[in-house]
Amino acid sequence: MIKVNIVCVGKLKESYWREAVAEYAKRLGAYCVFSVVELSESKLPDHPSEKQIADGLEKEADAMMKYLNARGALNIAMCIEGREQSSEALAARLNKAAAEGTSAVNFYIGSSYGLAGRVKKMCSAKLSMSPMTFPHQLARVMLCEQVYRAFSINANGKYHK
């Protein structure tokens, strides 16, 4: 069974976001080994300089290296400059990864300042949910839902209509 990790910076503060992620995690248990890895967000001042932001992103990238360097993993950066993709296309990508023997699919969600450039470079794909901007908490829930939808599509389930 393929492993799917959502590697993200920061914790979900509101219980309704945590409950939504937990619901999708429960549903995904039928299709994959699913986990959400919450990494510490860099502490920055209220109005950080570009250098402070860059340094913070690099510290967050250091924490992601364990997953980025995993052998046999498909790494996907969630970022605004990524490519938009349909639910069916994501399902096909996950299906192909499983068929090729990929050990894990890792999705990366950065802090409110995004992901360090080296994280994006180490990922084999960049994915965008929309040209709109979403709070990171909502983006995490949306990604969980789309991963669940993708597995449901691949299983010919009723969830995707």
Brief rundown of the structure:
This protein is an alpha/beta fold. The chain has helices at residues 15-28, 50-68, 87-99, 117-122, 136-154; strands at 3-9, 33-39, 73-84, 104-109, 125-128.
What can you see in these coordinates?
The chain is α/β, with parallel strands linked by helices and 161 residues long. The protein has a 5-stranded parallel β-sheet with strand order 2-1-4-3-5, with helices on both faces. α1 packs parallel to α5 and α3 packs across α5. The radius of gyration is 15 Å and the shape is globular.
Biggest pleated sheet? 5 strands, parallel
Order of helices and strands: EHEHEHEHEH
Distance between the termini: 25 Å
Mean pLDDT over the full residue set = 96
What gyration radius follows from the Cα positions, in whole Å? 15 Å
Strand line-up across the major sheet:
2-1-4-3-5
**Beta fraction:** 15-25%
Poorly predicted spans: none
Helix content: 40-55%
Shape: globular
Number of strands: 5
Protein structure class = alpha/beta
Number of helices: 5
What brief labels describe this structure?
five-stranded parallel β-sheet; 5 helices; alpha/beta; 161 residues; 5 strands
Compile the SSE list and pairings.
Blueprint: E1 3-9, H1 15-28, E2 33-39, H2 50-68, E3 73-84, H3 87-99, E4 104-109, H4 117-122, E5 125-128, H5 136-154
Parallel strand pairs: 1-2, 1-4, 3-4, 3-5
Helix pairs in contact: 1-5, 3-5
